[in-house]
Backbone:
């Protein structure tokens, strides 16, 4: 019996982008059996502590079971931001309500300026994409990200998983598990968004744009295009994930708290103690980070009207 090692897993990444759940779970209500695969590495561990991050409450809340050999501690501290669409009849109604008439008017004026100055059109690849077009879009999207973030000596999180995206998204798009939203100027992409789909939920995973068009609010225009598409295709939740970014907080009418589950082997008392301590350390660390990004304002006060928006939301059945 060795000293416990701490290993991290992203429930969100595994679920939406890999089409599976971490191997500790035996059953989650509403999740297909195909998402559950045996994990040989887990079966051979007798001491490791596993941190399962970013579990959205609308996918896993109370009705689930883990394998009998494991126990868990659960905390909530990281915030997620989403656009819950069911209370509105159209994208226009949602945006007027969420942004306010003046900001929505300014956003529409930016789009009209863009269309007057350029030959703009949208293409959505969801169910079919040519391999050559696919490869070209990935090259362009990577260039957009590098150009936007290199000036600030920052690295976009998506680039750490770029090989995975590039290798898997082609099949996912053709199987309608993912999509490319592309805004073109003539035949040249100026904004690209890679999203993943599960029933009535769409997750906007990676979005970037040509910095030349910065003055037209292209990131926000992409949200507008995606909202229109969601209403046309019976999507009830456009999820933007975690990260306290101003544009996400402005567009999102729903704020939720991810679960983090610390999973340990039941028979190892040292791992249980280590898991308990880990759960509290991570909660304190992440809550401090969140408070810092929110200007040391309480999320419960700042998002008082939005924190309960998804309490009654359910992922649609198959």
Residues:
């Amino acid at each position: 019996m060795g000293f416990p090692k701490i290993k991290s897993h992203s429930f969100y990444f595994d679920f939406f982008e890999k089409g599976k759940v971490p191997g500790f779970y035996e059953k989650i209500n509403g999740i297909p059996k195909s998402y559950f695969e045996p994990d040989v590495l887990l079966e051979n561990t007798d001491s490791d502590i596993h941190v399962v991050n970013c579990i959205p409450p609308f996918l896993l809340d109370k009705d689930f079971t883990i394998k009998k050999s494991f126990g868990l501690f659960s905390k909530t501290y990281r915030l997620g931001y989403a656009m819950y669409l069911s209370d509105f009849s159209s994208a226009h109604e949602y945006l007027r309500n969420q942004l306010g008439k003046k900001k929505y008017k300014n956003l529409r004026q930016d789009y009209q300026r863009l269309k007057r100055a350029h030959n703009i059109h949208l293409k959505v690849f969801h169910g079919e994409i040519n391999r050559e077009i696919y490869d070209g879009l990935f090259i362009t999207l990577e260039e957009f990200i590098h150009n936007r973030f290199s000036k600030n000596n920052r690295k976009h999180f998506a680039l750490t998983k770029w090989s995975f995206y590039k290798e898997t998204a082609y099949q996912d798009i053709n199987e309608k598990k993912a999509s490319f939203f592309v805004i073109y100027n003539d035949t040249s992409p100026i904004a690209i968004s890679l999203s993943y789909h599960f029933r009535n939920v769409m997750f906007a995973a990676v979005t970037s744009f040509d910095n030349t068009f910065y003055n037209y609010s292209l990131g926000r225009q992409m949200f507008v295009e995606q909202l229109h598409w969601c209403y046309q295709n019976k999507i009830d939740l456009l999820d933007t994930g975690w990260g306290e970014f101003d544009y996400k907080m402005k567009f999102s009418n729903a704020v939720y708290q991810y679960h983090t589950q610390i999973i340990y082997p039941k028979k190892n008392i040292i791992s249980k103690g280590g898991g308990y301590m880990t759960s509290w350390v991570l909660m304190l660390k992440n809550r401090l980070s969140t408070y810092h990004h929110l200007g040391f304002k309480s999320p419960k006060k700042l998002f008082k009207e939005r924190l309960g928006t998804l309490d009654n939301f359910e992922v649609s059945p198959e």
